């Protein structure tokens, strides 16, 4: 159990790093650098293939440690390898925490009642006798099933000091179809619920441990979402590869660059595939892309 | 790859069983019968604890084989035990398929683009070199992120013969909060999307491989949902423990008891805890509860 609320650990981590970058750990099989090609080898044992995902993520963690506040492993790419992938996931989460990084497990789970409680237990609150080190600091969560289905996750956050990022407005092109059903818009109803349940878990920083995912690609909506959820940590996907700029994300922040994380996954991890960084060894490309992202966001946040 | 579409395998399985019962495999730690108490023992190795979940589900599969068309393992309860739970999940899915049961993986995943494709690959379409036997026949899916995020899953169904059950209207008390945002209601927009993408995957039976979850607890909405999605297999949670009766689910069916599955999880698996079956050995209680459910549904469907 963390005696400090996720809200305050996040606030401190952003202040310490001096930037709000959230490095995605997305070991996308087809995009992995040549050095990890064994992961794509159908003839290799599944365990060996999963080990390559782990090795790639450990290298990214090494790049991120001491430079950014948090990392976001994406569960889907691990689940591809079944139980071997799950083992790699646990090792990656543990390694990131050992490196002093906050871990936001991008699992997008969501279910009802005792099933929701089981998911919360799986990712935030390991059972007695299980290793604590593989718990995430926070996880992403789908609200579609209703506010009552958020409650077991909020309860887990209360008992463990963990946090949530509820999917309010996602960054993908078709996200408005169901999220903007209404009025009242479904995403606004979710935002109000996130704010309300978050009031129960306010930290000394003034932030809540219950956060929201708000796509940076909806730049014109960000100020309204921030106003609707004034104490809610925001997780912003969509920077870089999906088209959002540093300037676009500024309205999501609280004063002094607080209260939000800007995620980049393939823009950093697979920078070698970009025109800008082509020809560099993959890790140099990723390091340079991460430095550029940090500088870009610092610049935009300082300018305001 | 299944050469027969999920739609047609499901239709045949319901006809063969002569009932639409979907037995949930929910190895809920706190509810497991005393015989599996090792699962709750904090001092036991995690692998041994996960083995108890597996053992419980294998017993339920034995009860279900030849009697019902399909089973629905719930991922959350396996994920509690991390990689060991994932291994148990794979073994349970394989055992159910070997027993001739269709397997609907209750994973409620959902994500964008290549991440969605990774989830589809994990549950419907194992990679080359991985064991085919642990793929599900169909999985449950959250639509919150938008119709574009259903597409990678539909593509996986096209290439593998698998199926989906998209969460349109869930059975929990708070499900209306976001699902009925509008008008137009979010759940109706999802239903229309499910129908539209399903048109691409119609089987010889006239049904689609793209199904929908529609809670049996919303009895008054079922006829309208069926009319909105005339060729969509419906998965109905909420029977029994959550309060819906056999008569409630009838409007969801197509003629001759086709086109829908009625799920029961704790009402059967944990029947020993009910007043009606108290005092019986757990498996006798579960067998009797399953028999009663089959008779109840057959009666209601024949009466119409």
Q: What is the CATH architecture annotation of chain A?
A: Alpha-Beta Barrel
Structural class of chain A: alpha/beta
> Overall pLDDT of chain A, averaged?
95
Q: Write down the overall geometry of chain A.
A: globular
Plain-language structure description:
The structure is a homodimer of 304-residue chains. Chain A is of the alpha/beta class and 304 residues long. The first copy, chain A, has a single domain (6-303), classed as Alpha-Beta Barrel (TIM Barrel), CATH 3.20.20. Chain A has 12 helices and 8 strands. In chain A, helix 6 links the parallel strand 4 and strand 5. The radius of gyration of chain A is 18 Å and the shape is globular. The model of chain A has no long low-confidence stretch (mean pLDDT 95). The interface between A and B is large, with 71 and 71 residues.
Main features:
alpha/beta, 304 residues, eight-stranded parallel barrel, 13% strand, homodimer, TIM Barrel
List strands and helices in order, with pairings:
The structure is a homodimer of 304-residue chains.
Chain A: H1 6-17, E1 21-25, H2 46-64, E2 70-73, H3 75-79, H4 82-98, E3 102-109, H5 113-123, E4 138-141, H6 151-160, E5 163-169, H7 176-179, H8 186-198, E6 210-214, H9 219-228, E7 234-236, H10 246-249, E8 260-264, H11 266-269, H12 282-303
Parallel strand pairs in A: 1-2, 1-8, 2-3, 3-4, 4-5, 5-6, 6-7, 7-8
Helix pairs in contact in A: 2-4, 2-12, 5-6
